Amino acid sequence: MSDGRRERKKAQTRSRIQEAALDLFASQGYRETTIAQIAARADVATRTVTLHFPAKDDLLFADDPFTAESLAGRLRERPGSTLDAVRDWMHATMRALDERDRDSGLDPAHIWQRRALRAGLLMADDDLRGRARAGYRDLEVLVAGGIGADIGLPADALLPRLTAVTVVAGLREIYVTREGRAQSSTSDLSPLVDEVLAFAEAGLTRTGAARGILPGLT
């Protein structure tokens, strides 16, 4: 078997395992679902599940494209403000997700439903929510650092931190809002992403002006 074919087969198996896990988590609960049940649903050996996903919660966190590493790369290359870079990063990542799914013959609506389901599962479990928040913290630190540099304040000053928390929390909440649930694909969320960034930018500009700071946002 060629390396390319082997990698495709591995990716297909990995995807099938994650699909099976999401189905079971949704129907009977995350904590109530066992690795053996996931393996049976995916028609693979239990060992295969653990080879791909060593920990049970990896089934929900692995392969998320919205990583701190990808955002850091976008921020290093940004020509404008940090908020502009975050907006571009979100749009580019969402477009890439939809293109990947179409190239694989998958329905974007189905993929969006799975991402929304994942978000609901994370919000419903204390431990999963805690792990998710740890990841969000990395994003907040990056955004705060960029905004601090934009407006000439330390990254741990209140205004950069407050804006970063607003941005990351707002983007996270899109998935579980009424407006977000009404969408049929990841890229359909673009207007909601813009709304979150506009809200954060307005707060930053207004507060900065009140404190005698002129944020370099445009």
How would you describe this structure in keywords?
mainly alpha, 218 residues, 11 helices, 2 domains, Tetracycline Repressor, domain 2
Poorly predicted segments:
none
Query: What is the C-level CATH assignment of the largest domain?
Result: Mainly Alpha
Strand segment tally: 0
The SS-based structural class is mainly alpha
Number of domains: 2
Any idea what the radius of gyration is? 19 Å
Q: Provide the helix percentage.
A: over 70%
Question: What is the string of SSEs from the N terminus onward?
Answer: HHHHHHHHHHH
Shape: elongated
Strand content: under 5%
Number of helix segments?
11
N-to-C CA distance? 53 Å
In the CATH hierarchy, what is the architecture of the largest domain at level 2?
Orthogonal Bundle
CATH fold title of the largest domain: Tetracycline Repressor, domain 2
Mean pLDDT metric: 87
Largest sheet: none
CATH superfamily of the largest domain: Tetracycline Repressor, domain 2
What can you tell me about this protein's structure?
The chain has 218 residues and is mainly α. It folds into two domains: 3-59, Homeodomain-like (Arc Repressor Mutant, subunit A, Orthogonal Bundle), CATH 1.10.10.60; 68-210, Tetracycline Repressor, domain 2 (Orthogonal Bundle), CATH 1.10.357.10. The chain has eleven helices and no strands. It has helices spanning 3-28, 35-42, 46-52, 58-61, 68-77, 82-103, 108-124, 126-151, 158-173, 178-181, 190-210. Helix 2 (35-42) crosses helix 3, helix 5 crosses helix 6 (82-103) and helix 8 (126-151) packs across helix 9. The longest helix has 26 residues, at 3-28. The termini are far apart. The model has no long low-confidence stretch (mean pLDDT 87).
